[in-house]
Amino acid sequence: MADDLWIVVPHLGAGGAQKVAMLAAAHFAALGYRITVVSLLPDKTQVHSVPAGVRLLDLGEAVKAAQRGDWWDRSLLARSRRFLRLWLPRLASWFLLITLWPWLRQLRPPRGAALIRWLLRGVGGPQASLLRQLLVAEQPPRLLALLTKTNMLAAQASWDLPLHLAVSERNDPRLQTLGFPWQRLRLLLYRRADALTANTRGVLRTLADDLAMPQARLLPNPLPPGIGLAAESPANANANTNGNGQRSADCLAVARLVHQKGLDVLLEAVALMAARPIGWRLVIVGDGPQRPALESQARQLGIEAWIRFEGFQADVMPYCRRARIFVLPSRFEGMPNALLEAMASGLTAIVTDASPGPLELVEHGHTGLVVPVENPRALAAAMEALLADPGHCERLGRAGRERLAAQDWQMIEPLWRSALNLPAVSPERDG
Q1: Does the pLDDT at position 176 exceed 60?
Q2: In terms of Cα–Cα distance, which of 160, 169, 247 is closest to 211?
Q3: Which end of the chain has less neighbouring CB within 10 Å, N or C?
Q4: Which pLDDT value is given to residue 161?
Q5: What pLDDT is attached to residue 89?
Q6: Interhelix angle 113-124/148-157, nearest 10 degrees
Q7: Running DSSP on this structure, what letter comes out for residue 56?
Q8: Are residues 102 and 19 in the same domain?
Q9: CA angle (339 as vertex; 338, 345 as ends), nearest 5
């Protein structure tokens, strides 16, 4: 029997979109739907477990084989062939996107399917072609893609196929710009989407105002199972394991260690704090290419004794239960899962004003604190204020937790069903 839904992600490495994909797969599989997750990229370490009852199709090795070709042959002729195979289609695609754009911009699916497939193979590699082969062979009725380039590959692969395609933007396009030709391709390929979605209202406004896509709809990030608001009382959410029923004074940051997340600004803030951090630590959970630079920065600032780098952790809830403050110093964001998990655990959140997504949950002085982006002094002042007044910190954390009622699966499932065109009742199964 055919699957009910395919979910396409670039890989199953660390990332918020991957976590959302696994949460959705687990949720709908538990309801009786047949779910397949498709991963596109090779050489990515898998850190997310595939839920029970969910099938995984990993195209990584097939993509690598298609890209590699005669890599072992070091002769001039072989190198020339590889150069022509890789760069000639890419340059031709760029040329056609420029010269034919007045005509291409008028295309609507299913017209121009062969040209669309050729253009994107030249730009994006073999992923879309391999995905299309699977779609033609297995004919799933619904497909959800997450993250911008994956959205476009899925749209190209299904341009003229009779399936329901939902794509999901995960960051604000005004702040996460794409290089040529992806910016232009998005305008073209998103026409294939039956449901264009975003996980914040701010991104919906950007899609409508800046990209002329007013049809976009909200697809909120769900809370992981076990931390839904009905799953535990506020008293349990605010308890920790230190034996006295109180949270420790630790500050927590959970993020990939990349420039976008602003952790360098957070380290500067710790160094600036007037009340030196005696009795509390900054715990950073996550990994990424900036980890060596951040560790070096902590040493140079003389604060390495107060910073603990924990690396990637599949389950961040033990860290949330032990901390008091969650800090999100990002330069831009969509709707971070880490913020949802922290607020659902009763932590008080400090976020920057860089992106509208976190501001939909964190209202300054009511459900957390908001500071200007790239401002370590303001961030230090906010952290000091919460550390100095545990009662106020706890009140903000409680209010933030109550604010998350709108993110519980019970509340958002109708939005997901509508975007995915899933029937209201799980289909009956034979046997």
Answers
A1: yes
A2: 169
A3: C
A4: 96
A5: 76
A6: 140
A7: E
A8: yes
A9: 90
Residue 425 within a domain: no
What is the C-alpha separation between 250 and 29, in angstroms, rounded?
37
User: At 213, which helix (H) or strand (E)?
Assistant: none
Name residue 53's amino acid: G
CB atoms within 10 A of CB 239: 16
Asked if residue 163 lies in contact with residue 145, where contact means CB atoms within 8 angstroms, the answer is: no
- Asked whether residue 416 is assigned to any structural domain, the reply reads yes
Tally of domains within the chain: 2
pLDDT in tens, 111-162: 988 888 888 777 777 898 899 999 999 999 999 999 999 999 999 999 999 9
Secondary element (H or E) of residue 394: helix 390-403
Asked if residue 185 and residue 251 are part of one domain, the reply reads no
231 pLDDT band, cuts 50/70/90, is very low
Domain range enclosing 255 = 234-407
Write the pLDDT tens digit of every residue in 349-387. 999 999 888 999 999 999 999 999 999 999 999 999 999
Assign 398 a pLDDT band (cuts: 50, 70, 90): very high
Q: Is 130 exposed, middle or buried (0-12, 13-18, 19+ CB in 10 A)?
A: buried
Q: Are residues 254 and 174 in the same domain?
A: no
Give the neighbor-by-neighbor strand order of the sheet with 325-328. Answer: 307-311, 282-285, 251-254, 325-328, 348-352, 369-371
Shared domain check, 81 and 134: yes
Q: Tell me, what's the pLDDT at 165?
A: 98
Here the CATH number for the domain that contains residue 41 is: 3.40.50.2000
What average pLDDT does the segment 287-295 reach? 96
Residue 26 has pLDDT above 60, yes or no: yes
| Residue 134 C-alpha from the chain's centroid | 25
- Beta strand 5-9 with 195-198 is unpaired
Pairing of strands 164-169, 195-198: parallel
